[in-house]
Design a protein that fits this description.
11 helices; Rossmann fold; alpha/beta; elongated; Helicase, Ruva Protein, domain 3; 2 domains; 279 residues; two-stranded antiparallel sheet
């Protein structure tokens, strides 16, 4: 660690108070930050993208772990002075991007291999994940701190209560590795929910053939009325009997019982039979 004030002192000196409206919970435990940085692998290679660094706790750990090309995307202008101090302590290694991560094209940042390492703001984490799906294959990994409930949904298997659209879409493109839980006391202020660090590894090829936009519509329809049978929930997509027959799936089944491969088969059936329903 360079000659920097402690993270607690940095927060105090710059008057950075976490805002609920921004989903902020600052991670203060340096050992935990280092553990997250290690989970990202060799950060000395290529570029690392951090979303919502706040006062820079995880940023420091990534730099100490050897990150030489670190892009820190921060929306809160109050955090800028603290992050600029950090960048000055590690010359040429940090690029601060002021802006909303929901509006920034990550494909334009840095060099390969690229990775995302972040304690994501809880209020936009799910939206960010879905926005990254079209380009997720450009990353070698995504190491993310999320609500434990969200990680459970990402890793859920068919037949479980947590299994839904998110599990299908993410697991179709990535392997999901829940790594370790984080106690609320590690944050300032402590969140009311438990947190988990998860590692997503994009697959070389999707789990089964399907068009992403079609698969998104099929899963949205199926899980939009998850307690209903497919013959009811998939009506919006066309003739359900024909679609299910093509996919060799029973129209009396329910979304939570289908495998990811089943959904991909349904998506291919929809794409082939009823293109008009997707326009």
């Amino acid at each position: 660690m360079r000659n920097l004030p402690s993270l607690t002192d940095t927060i105090r000196m710059h008057g950075i108070r976490a805002k609920k409206t921004m989903g902020q919970h600052f991670l203060l435990d340096s050992n935990l930050c280092s553990r997250i940085a290690r989970a990202a692998g060799d950060v000395a290679k290529g570029s690392t993208i951090e979303i919502g660094p706040g006062p820079g706790g995880l940023t420091r750990a990534l730099l100490d772990a050897g990150a030489f090309s670190l892009f820190a995307i921060e929306k809160d202008p109050r955090c800028k002075p603290a992050l600029l101090e950090l960048a000055s302590a590690y010359p040429g290694r940090v690029t601060l991007i002021e802006g909303d991560a929901l509006k920034i094209d990550l494909t334009t940042l840095g060099n390969h291999p690229k990775r995302i390492v972040a304690n994501l703001p809880y209020n936009i984490a799910t939206e960010l994940l879905f926005r990254w799906l079209p380009c997720i294959d450009i990353f070698e990994s995504l190491v993310l701190m999320l609500q434990k409930e969200v990680v459970n949904r990402l890793a859920a298997k068919p037949g479980s209560k947590s299994y839904g659209r998110m599990a299908v879409m993410i697991q179709w493109l990535c392997t999901v590795e829940p790594m370790f839980d984080v106690n609320p006391t590690a944050f300032h202020p402590p969140p009311k929910v438990k947190s988990t660090v998860v590692r997503l590894i994009p697959r070389e090829q999707p789990l089964a053939p399907a068009e992403r936009l079609v698969l998104e519509r099929v899963t949205a329809a199926a899980f939009g009325q998850r307690r209903k049978m497919l013959r009811s929930s998939l009506k919006i997509l066309g003739d359900v009997s024909t679609l299910c027959a093509d996919a060799r799936i029973e129209p009396t089944d329910r979304a939570e019982n289908l495998s990811i491969e089943d959904f991909c088969t349904l998506a291919r059936s929809v794409a082939g039979r009823n293109t008009a329903a997707l326009s």
